[in-house]
Every structure is written in structure tokens, then in C-alpha cells.
Amino acid sequence: MGMLTLSLALVMFGVALNLRKEDFLRIAREPRLVATGLFSQFLALPALTVLLIHAWRPAPSLALGALLVACCPGGNLSNFMSLLARGNVALSVSLTAASSLLALVLTPLNFMLWGRALPGESARLLAAIDVHPLQLLPSLLLMLALPLVAGMAFAAWRPQWAARIEAPMRKGSILVFLGFVAAALLANGGLFRAWLPVVFLLVLVHNALALMTGYGVAQLGGLGPRERRSLAIETGIQNSGLGLVLVLGHFEALGGMALVAAWWGVWHILSGLGLALWWGRHAPQPAKHPSVSG
Predict the structure, then answer these.
(1) Whole-model pTM?
(2) What is the CATH number of the domain that holds 216?
């Protein structure tokens, strides 16, 4: 658990090496763009996830795992994928920064509030666990806020060093994280084999729903083609590693939650890269409104 927390903190530290104060100032300059992305991540996706669970009725622990992933902020690879997809990378970076900070409050709050709207057995299981949102705060601080602040401070203090170590840190920490994902799957090998078809299909459909949610919300919000691509990726590339750490730290008796979070960590890389590379081969149409083409 401690090593997994450290590896995810290093991932966020590496992401923060590329952040600048301008990325936060952009939120004030283009509030509609960022607000649309945050709406997609923290409201639309959890709400649609609850509807999916009502329609699907998976095992309660799998349902809770899907909801927890939906309540997490965007993943660390989203900026790179937005670049590959010819999306609005500046918007993607700002959304990553904003959602990572807001997740300190919104991830536990969303999980507990939307958990009450789940089907009976899943809602009762969550109530029986009786985890208060504040109990998740220390883990979120260690994995999101502190590495974010430390990475930005280091980049401002030693920009040349930050530029040198950013790529190796990102690649190394991702490999370590994938090792922990593999360990989580092996540790729940019996459950994984028994639930493999269900977990695979649930994550596949849920991830596709997340990607479509981001694109659809951006389209309904009147954003341009590049912004639609970035919002699709920001919403579809969730920080499932954060979800996995929260499961292991606070819901370790529920192997189904760990399976969903772990498999999300694998699948969203495959689906996100596939979509980004496909989009990268097709230039987006020029935006009709220059103000949203960042």
C-alpha cells in the first residue's frame, strides 16, 4: 500500500513538473471551457455511472468499484493523449490541474452521495462499510495535493532539472504502477478468473461511456472539435490508480472494487491511446468560434 501510494505520488509529481501558474490562470480566462470539463468529470460521469449500474446490476462490490473510478479526477496520461489526438492540450493541462485539486473534496463527497442512489444491495453495502469522506482525505492529500505543489515548486526552482527528469520519472512511475496493478489482479486471482467476463465487459462499457460523455458534454456546450477531443480524453482517462489506493486503504475487504479499479488502469491506456492515435490521423475541423480553440 505504502509503495503504491508513493508511486502514484511520483506520477503526480512528474505531471506537476509541466504545470505553470499560467495553467491555473487559464481557468479564470476561459471559465466556460474548464467548467464544462469539470461538469463532465464530476457530475455527468458519476450520474451516468449510477444509471449504468441500475441497468446492469453487477455484483455490489463491482458496482462500488465502477462508481469510485467515476468519481476520481482525470488520469496523468490525458495530457499526452490529448497531444496525440490533436486536441486542446492547454485545456487538458488546466483540467488535470483543476480536477486533481478539486478531487480532494469532490471524489469522496461524490462517492458517498451518488452511492446512496445505487441499487439496494450496493447502497446497503456502502452504508455497512461506513467510511466517512474525511477518512479519504489523508490519502488524497498524499497522492494529489502535496505532489502537485512540490512538483510545481521544483520546476520553478530548477527548471532545467525538471525538464531532464520529467520524462524518465513519468515512464518509471507508470511501469511501477502497472506492476502494482498486476499484483492486485494476482492477489485477487480467484475472483478475477470467476468474474473475468463481467469485469472485462463492465470496464469496457463504462470506459466507452466515459469517453462519449466527455465528447457529448463538450458538443452540447458548444465547444470546438479540438476541445471535444480533449474533454473526451479527460473524462475517459480516469485516475484509476488513485481509486485502487483508496480501495486498498479503506475497502480492502472488497476484492471486486480492486478488480474494477485495477483493470480500468490497464484498459483506459489501451482505449485512450487507440482513440488518440486514430484522431491524430484526422485533423479536426477549424473551430467556428476562435474563443474556444485555445
Answers:
(1) 0.85
(2) 1.20.1530.20
